[in-house]
Amino acid sequence: MSTSSSAAWQPPAPRAEFRIGHESPAGSGSGGWSIDWLLKRNCSLAPRQLLAFYLSLCVLSLGIAAMFWVQGARMVMPFAWIELVGVGAALWVYARHATDSESIVLRDDRLTVEVANGPQVERVEFQPAWVRVEPERDEQSLIELSGQGRRIAVGRFVRPELRGQLAQELRLALRRWQQGAARPAPV
User: Fold this and answer.
1) Of 40, 46, 48, 185, which sits most exposed with the smallest number of CB within 10 A?
2) In what order do the strands lie in the sheet with 110-117?
3) What is the pLDDT of residue 63?
4) What is the reported pLDDT for 182?
5) pLDDT at 178
6) pLDDT score, position 8
7) Do 26 and 33 touch, CB atoms closer than 8 A?
8) Residue 164 CA, distance from chain mean position
9) Is the pTM of this model over 0.90?
10) Cα–Cα distance measured from residue 101 to residue 41, given in angstroms and rounded to the nearest whole number
């Protein structure tokens, strides 16, 4: 029994894994290599679920107030309305920011950063060769992306102890982009 092994064959070097970002290799859906980081607020209730909860609270509270109204306790109804307006205002403030997010996409020759805060969306595009990734103050502060006279802070929805990991992933992706290893070879 003979076995042949080639001394020239080496297993491929493991590529650095992205814990926070998602890497899409060349040839997948978008047509080229990309890395996406989607950072979102951890919400226990989506806005639609919140609305259903609030409507059920309104029905229950107004139903009880109506029963007291019929029994002759007229002051319960105005207080029920005041309560529902106050709870509604608090839930509206919560729902306004429930879908806040940060999206960072490195694709082709663009690094695109979108920060959604309530109804406002801030979008900044960078050329990857000119981007600097630095913490604002220390390793656990927000991460500042800057270049070409523009800057934006990201990392609000990442635990402070993981912000260093996010900064490392961004630096690694930009380094791979600059080295050309990430970009697909021309066909």
Assistant:
1) 185
2) 22-24, 34-40, 101-107, 110-117, 120-126
3) 97
4) 47
5) 83
6) 53
7) yes
8) 16
9) no
10) 6
Count of Cβ atoms closer than 10 Å to residue 155 Cβ: 26
**Tally of CB atoms within 10 A around 135:** 16
The residue whose two tokens read 């929805």 is: 157
Which residues of the chain carry a pLDDT beneath 70? 1-16, 26-31, 181-187
Which tokens hold the place of 114?
Answer: 């979108």
Q: How many CB atoms lie within 10 A of CB 147?
A: 16
DSSP letter for each residue of 81-137? HHHHHHHHHHHHHHHHTTT-EEEEEEETTEEEEEEEETTEEEEEEE-GGG-EEEESS
| Number of neighbouring beta carbons within 10 Å of residue 156 | 15
| β-bridge pairing 120-126 and 132-135 | unpaired
Residue with tokens 């080639």: 6
Distance of alpha carbon 173 from alpha carbon 106, whole angstroms:
8
